[in-house]
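Handout, section B. The chain below has 115 residues.
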Amino acid sequence: MALVRDPAFWRRFSVAVHLDEEKGVSPTMASPSAHSHGDIVSDDWLKRQQGKRARRACICWGFWLLFFAIIAAVAVLIWYISTHGLNIGHNHYGGTDSSSSSKSSSSGSGSDSGS
């Protein structure tokens, strides 16, 4: 059996038992449909706990979706680099460094052949 992790639970439980003892009602005889101040507080507590659980579920789903999206992005990046290669030789103007050097060498060889 799991232990209750909410430290305020035992305080609320103790207060509820004492209220029932003052009324002279045993916990087994209390009807669940009875509405008292303790039930209203308990309903608020239950709604807060359900809200926390829903928020935690959203955060968990968001984390795992983001995690798998990052893994997918890295996989696509690795695939793209492996198929297209990593072109580091590009300069900032859209050309490659090797194309500018080949033009200068071809112009030099053209002048040699013209002489």
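Note. The first helix runs from residue 7 to 23. Compare this with the example in section A.
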